[in-house]
Design goal:
The chain is mostly helical. It contains seven helices and no strands.
């Protein structure tokens, strides 16, 4: 999405949120980021403190969810839907949304499967398996 640099990724969130708050013109991706941040008021305060947060580590061992990873996964799902990739993602999204009735909750469920697929790929040093991902999504229908 933004390269491999964690600080570069995080900078995008800080910049987009600042532009949104100041009602400045944004690039299309910045507008997507700002919309996602808007849906997460629990992260607004940390985005006000770039210096403290830009290099902060968030680890499960410390009982923390990485807010930047969480929001980036929302972006990934929205990108999957806009590009219709993997094939079938749109239909599964619509089926889950029809059942759950809440777009944000639907994305959170999808993120569970996306995270599982990415973790398995990374831990096994292999490419992510889109079929496993789609099969995982089917359990929410």
């Amino acid at each position: 999405m933004f390269g491999q640099d964690r600080s570069e990724l995080r900078k995008m969130f800080f910049t987009a949120w600042k532009k949104h708050q100041n009602k400045q013109l944004m690039e299309p991706l910045e507008a997507v980021v700002a919309k996602i941040v808007e849906l997460h008021p629990e992260y607004h305060a940390l985005l006000e403190n770039e210096e403290a947060e830009i290099d902060k580590d968030y680890t499960p061992e410390m009982g923390q969810t990485n807010p930047f990873l969480h929001m980036a996964m929302h972006i990934s799902i929205q990108e999957q839907l806009s590009t219709k990739r993997p094939t079938g993602i749109e239909q599964l999204h619509q089926a889950i949304l029809k059942k759950k009735k809440d777009p944000h909750e639907t994305e959170h469920l999808m993120m569970e499967c996306l995270g599982k697929m990415l973790w398995e790929a990374q831990s096994q040093n292999k490419m992510p398996d889109e079929n496993d991902y789609l099969d995982c999504l089917k359990k929410y229908i």
